[in-house]
Amino acid sequence: MLKEIIVSSAGNRMRVAVLEDHVPVEVYFEPPGAELVGSIYKGRVENILPGIEAAFVDIGLERNAFLYVKDARVLAGKRGGRLQIQQILKPGQEIIVQVVKSHFGAKGARVTAHVTLPGRYLVLATSVQHIGVSRRIGSPAERERLRQIAAALRPTGMGLIVRTAAEGVGEEELRHDLEMLVKRWEDICVKAREPAPRLLYRDIDLLPRILRDFFTGDVNRLVVDSEALRQEVLSIIADLGPELKDRVFLETGPDLMAAYGVEQEVERALKRRVWLKSGGYLVFDRTEAFTVIDVNTGKYVGSASLEETVVKTNLEAAREIARQLRLRNIGGIVIIDFIDMVEERHRQQVLSVLEEALRRDRVRSHLLGITKLGLVELTRKKSRPSLAEMLLQPCPHCGGTGYVRREAGEELSIGEDLPEDANNSLQRQTGEL
After folding, report:
1. Nearest 5 degrees, angle CA 260-CA 211-CA 180?
2. How many CA atoms are closer than 13 Å to the CA of 226, on its beta-carbon side?
3. Is 120 helix (H, G, I), strand (E, B) or coil?
4. Count of CB atoms situated within 10 Å of the CB of 269
5. Strand ranges (E), 81-172
6. CA–CA separation, 181 vs 202, rounded Å?
């Protein structure tokens, strides 16, 4: 698979796209003023909600952050089968927390007291004594080698997670990465001596994060649109991965994102209906609780039988759904209504194709299978706003429902435009006067 990263700074706005076989699968840009997932704050507990085992924490932003009991650093024992939040937190208490989910709408950011610091090869877990190795490293021998190195390097009282980029990396490089993370945590602890609320550490900006997390050995090309940006990239990867400098390319032009089809795919990803190459189509509907995806044959009529037409449409839809989940950055519960298939082997085939396509996604997802009604359920971790949440706003006329009142429907409204006497009569009949 050809994997490319496209980086554009046109218009003083950093935009990044990840392409697989020339097809955009992920896009990133940082909205101004948003708190970054991964940033660390010293906050003050404002109030406790025992009924939902959570607390609101003032971290100095417009909205208080939301902290679940299970995400508090020191867990208390259980009483009557329930965690006792009063034993863990109390109003006015100062606590170090890390943003794990950006704010959305009227909801503040979600935070955790289990602070982790990611590096190029390792993640330092400051509150647990655990060794983990990325599941994307397939070789059992390599996983065991890295596990042993991590166990030898692990700081006392902390844990380590070995990232995918560490595959094939020697102990000395891992040690250097860890030393940098330990020093960063020590600096955070020094800053934490000051009173709350206070920002202790802001996760690095978009370009360094992309280079740290995405620009690894499996990337064939990284393309930038200015010489200044190329020099910035080369400066950053001088420490992260100097062997990758020959994969950095400069392409000048009026719009790099449009040239690689990214702008077109973003516009397509903002639409409710997505057409498949076969002539079938997908329909995306979002609710407060989950996202629903409906699969339809559309213009595709096949050439052999109904079952063959349905299976081919569903297989194409499964691959496109996995890509759209990444491109739209849809998180939470997802329900997929594939076209009904008669044979069980065909249903399992579609599930297998969907599962395989989801493995390319860096964001963790869990495929739950098919319900009794024939619906496919899956969950995808949500840590940052979706593409639609970042680029769209609710319609002021319909309030985001997609519907406005028909002109004929205005005649059916009750009370709103009635004369005052009629309103009083209506209220008496309903017991309001």
Report:
1. 175
2. 13
3. coil
4. 22
5. 82-83, 94-101, 110-112, 116-118, 122-125, 131-133, 159-162
6. 14
The pTM of the full predicted model, rounded to 2 decimals, is: 0.78
Contacts of 415 (CB under 8 A, 6+ apart): 423, 426
Note the pLDDT of residue 233. Answer: 94
pLDDT of residue 424: 54
Note the pLDDT of residue 18.
96
What is the C-alpha to C-alpha distance for residues 226 and 164, in angstroms, rounded to an integer?
30
Q: Decide: 341 and 297 in contact? Cβ < 8 Å.
A: no
CB 198 within 8 Å of CB 60: yes
3-state secondary structure of 37: coil
Alpha-carbon span 282 to 297, nearest angstrom: 9
Residue with tokens 């009949």: 429
* DSSP code per residue over 48-101: EEGGGTEEEEE-SSSS-EEEEGGGSSS---EETTEE-GGGT--TT-EEEEEEEE
Q: Shortest CA distance to 357 belongs to which of 382, 342, 339, 336?
A: 336
Q: What is the pLDDT of residues 30-66, one digit of tens each?
A: 665 555 788 999 999 999 888 888 899 999 988 899 9
**8-17, 18-27, 161-170, 335-344: which range is least confident on average?**
8-17
Residue with tokens 């330092």: 124
pLDDT tens column, 188-212 = 999 999 999 999 998 778 889 899 9
Nearest Cα to Cα of residue 214 among 190, 237, 232 = 237
Mean pLDDT to the nearest integer, 345-358: 94
Buried-exposed string 77-108: b where 16+ CB fall within 10 A, e elsewhere: eeeeeebebeebbeeeeebbbbbbbbbeeeeb
Cβ atoms within 10 Å, residue 151: 10
Q: Dump pLDDT digits (tens) for 299-341.
A: 876 667 888 889 999 999 999 999 999 999 999 999 999 999 8
Both structure tokens of 395: 């319609």
Residue given tokens 């009635």 in the structure block: 418
Query: Does 81 score more than 60 pLDDT?
Result: no
